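does this look right to u?? iron/sulfur cluster version
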Amino acid sequence: MAKVVERVGDSFADRIYVPAILAGLKITTRHFFRNLFGQKETVTIAYPEVKIPYSPRWRGQHRLLKRDDGEPRCVACFMCSTACPADCIHIVAGEHDDQGREKFPVRFEIDELRCIYCGMCEEACPCDAIRMDTGLHAAPVYNREAAWVRKDQLLARNGRDYAVRADAEGPPCAVSSK
Ligand code: SF4
Ligand code: SF4
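got this back:
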């Protein structure tokens, strides 16, 4: 035997929508004041003014390491940019005066908006020249240009140094010009 289901939403009140709109506004207003005054229950935070502590396992944004003489360890081999699945590392290589070094990065830029923080670049680097151990979270930016991190910025960042630097005697990355 077929069950007759009572049809709803056909009353005069349903058809003028006003009670439903008022019910929706009541719920929205309740959430608004609960978020405004009962902030202990609020799950969102006012980032970037407020930050939650990260796990100690969080490694952070990239940095470029330097040789003992202050120059980049990077030899512009393009291994990192080749391994990068997001295609966000852009390198312009130049010839170094020191024949023992051959090349160096004239430009080394990372588009942090495209980066997916997979770590493939530091895995691929044969020179231990790039690491993701700064503990820095990507800063909020107002335009795409500001999300491009350049060579000087990458070299200026400090790391938390979980790992010991790779062998300082292994060519070609660590050969000194001195
Ligand atoms: S972390 Fe991954 S996505 Fe980001 S630059 Fe390195 S390889 Fe590319
Ligand atoms: S950071 Fe490492 S992998 Fe990338 S270009 Fe420089 S030396 Fe090569």
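Helices lie at 12-16, 18-37, 79-83, 120-124, 151-156. idk if thats expected tbh
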